[in-house]
Design brief:
Helix content of chain B: under 10%
Order of helices and strands of chain A: HEHEEEHHEHEE
Oligomer: heterodimer
Radius of gyration of chain A: 18 Å
Number of helices of chain A: 5
Strand order of the largest sheet of chain A: 5-4-6-1-7
Radius of gyration of chain B: 21 Å
CATH class of chain A: Alpha Beta
Structural class of chain B: mainly beta
Strand content of chain A: 25-35%
Largest sheet of chain B: 16 strands, antiparallel, barrel
Low-confidence stretches of chain B: none
Strand content of chain B: over 45%
CATH topology of chain B: Porin
Low-confidence stretches of chain A: none
Mean pLDDT of chain A: 87
CATH architecture of chain A: 3-Layer(aba) Sandwich
Helix content of chain A: 40-55%
CATH superfamily of chain A: Periplasmic binding protein-like II
Structural class of chain A: alpha/beta
Number of strands of chain A: 7
Largest interface: A-B, 22 and 31 residues
Shape of chain B: globular
Distance between the termini of chain B: 24 Å
Number of helices of chain B: 4
Mean pLDDT of chain B: 89
Number of domains of chain A: 1
Largest sheet of chain A: 5 strands, mixed
CATH superfamily of chain B: Porin
Order of helices and strands of chain B: HEHEEEEEHEEEEEEEEEEHEEE
């Protein structure tokens, strides 16, 4: 009996770990749109879309973290080096403002709450469903 | 030396103003150094500069500041070339009404093709050591008016499944002038225009998520180009006055680790003061590269410039000749900010054929 319970417990643990982790694209509650397509999200983080419904968009990155790596790979289809290289080129070509850098999901959430146009990414399981100052625009499965 | 001091002063004042205003001004830039050597005794133009001996070259030191003030952007780019010449390459003031409409004023790179509007003077950004010869900057002997002083509307709009980017400009037309009293070059007319007619140009690029990585472009440029009083007579041409029409097409395609890039330009000059009539020349390049593990990038560049150097007073004045060049290269990215490049080139010009090889170290900071 004890062995069966142990096997079930291990199985549940493995099952949970096998579940792909998800990113949540979050925005201020006053952000003009309730959702965002992945193609538009790419435009936002590449500085090609800067306004939504008359509101200036301010994207936020989580610098030097695993979540940034996953976000760039899955959402933007690029690597950290290529992304940094892209922004050097972008600023040199057209000026513009690269995404703001934050160190943690907590810092991203705090910033998103401040202004209508702020948009960022955190792990989906870090979203507090009771927090009505933030809304989730999109979730992206990123694997383990 | 005086120019260097002026530049240093400008930088110091700029930083000071930034500190006083509490603005986070940040200088960024590019720098590069190269070595080039040709392998034949007959090195044509490069031979005159000691190409057979081999040359270490200080490339361009490019300093720029980009600053955003809500809907207003400012970009200033200064370049030190050859270790001593300071040029204000770009100075753009921009107001953004939306992503689809921005108005720019100042000195900018003429919206003409991909290369000219993508890499500017940042050598680290381009795959190869050099620009294709027909896209060289005016003061390097280029044949196209790649800089313009004027007004420029630009924008980008997405109407699924199509994304369109455009640029439309009006500016001072270029003139043909001499800075050394020995040869002529094109000047963008930074302060005044020496003709009544303004230059007009457009650039349109289309892409679609349906074909990821593909961009197609078309461009055009119309200008009246006259020489000024410092013009150096050459081969019986004592002045230049042409109506110039440039049209072109571009393609970029990136799929997986393969990148393709190509541009074609047709340049038609109608002589207004001589008997040369209308002459059409053309130039193109194709570049293919393959990226391995984000570090190694072997590439192949083929370029061709075919000009009416015996009839067209514009090309006679500039001393342009036909050029066919094939470049085989390998780029190694030390990081996303720095690269080493090695090239072997097969050069076929009207004044000779030879091979040359080159190395370059380029950085962005």
């Amino acid at each position: 009996m004890k062995i069966k319970i142990l096997i079930i417990a291990i199985g549940l643990l493995l099952y949970e770990n096998a579940q792909a982790r998800e990113l949540a694209i979050i925005a201020n509650k006053a952000y003009p749109s309730g959702s965002i397509a992945i193609a538009v999200l790419k435009d936002v983080y590449r500085g090609e879309k800067t306004v939504e419904g008359g509101v200036k968009i301010r994207p936020i990155d989580q610098e030097g973290s695993m979540i940034e790596k996953k976000f760039l790979e899955k959402a933007l289809g690029t690597t950290i080096d290529r992304y940094k290289g892209y922004w050097i080129k972008r600023i040199f070509q057209d000026g513009g403002v690269p995404p703001v850098k934050k160190k943690s999901s907590g810092a991203v959430m705090e910033s998103v709450k401040q202004e209508a146009g702020w948009i960022g990414y955190i792990w989906k399981d870090e979203v507090d469903p009771k927090d009505n100052e933030i809304k989730v625009l999109l979730t992206i499965e990123v694997g383990d | 030396m005086k120019r260097i001091i002026i530049l240093a002063s400008w930088i110091a004042v700029h930083c000071l103003i930034g500190v006083i205003d509490g603005n986070a001004f940040e200088f960024n830039g590019f720098a590069d150094a190269s070595f080039t050597k040709c392998t034949n005794d007959d090195c044509g133009a490069i031979g005159e500069e000691g190409g057979r001996n081999g040359n270490f070259t200080v490339g361009t030191l490019d300093l720029y500041v980009a600053h955003n003030m809500d809907k207003i952007d400012a970009l200033v780019e200064l370049v030190i070339e050859g270790g001593s010449i300071v040029d204000l390459e770009r100075m753009i003031l921009r107001y953004s009404f939306s992503d689809a409409l921005q108005i720019n004023m100042g000195r900018f790179h003429t919206p003409m093709g991909f290369w000219n509007t993508s890499f500017h003077h940042g050598v680290q950004l381009q795959t190869t050591i050099n620009r294709p010869e027909f896209l060289l900057f005016e003061d390097d002997g280029g044949i196209l008016p790649v800089h313009t002083v004027g007004l420029y509307l630009s924008g980008r709009t997405r109407r699924d499944p199509l994304i369109a980017e455009y640029g439309v400009m009006v500016g001072n037309g270029p003139r043909v002038t001499s800075e050394d009293e020995e040869s002529n070059l094109i000047s963008p007319n930074n302060v005044t225009d020496n003709t009544m007619g303004k230059s007009v140009a457009f650039n349109v690029t289309l892409s679609s998520p349906l074909v990821e990585g593909l961009k197609l472009g078309a461009q055009g440029h119309i200008a009246r180009i006259e020489s000024d009083s410092s013009f150096v007579p050459v081969n019986g041409i004592s002045a230049v006055d042409v109506d110039q029409t440039i049209i072109g097409a571009s393609i970029i395609y990136s799929t997986g680790n393969i990148d393709l890039m190509g541009e074609y330009f047709s340049i038609k000059d109608k002589d207004n003061i001589g008997s040369a009539g209308s002459n059409t020349s053309n130039a193109y390049y194709g570049l293919i590269s393959y990226t391995i593990a984000d570090r190694w990038i072997p590439y192949l560049l083929h370029e061709n410039m075919s000009v009416k150097s015996d009839k067209d007073p514009y090309f006679i004045a500039l001393g342009s000749t036909d050029v066919r060049k094939t470049t085989l290269g390998l780029r190694y990215n030390l990081s996303y900010r720095s690269s080493l490049k090695a090239e072997w080139r097969d050069v076929d010009r009207a004044d000779g054929k030879w091979n040359e090889y080159g190395f370059q170290w380029a950085i962005a900071f």
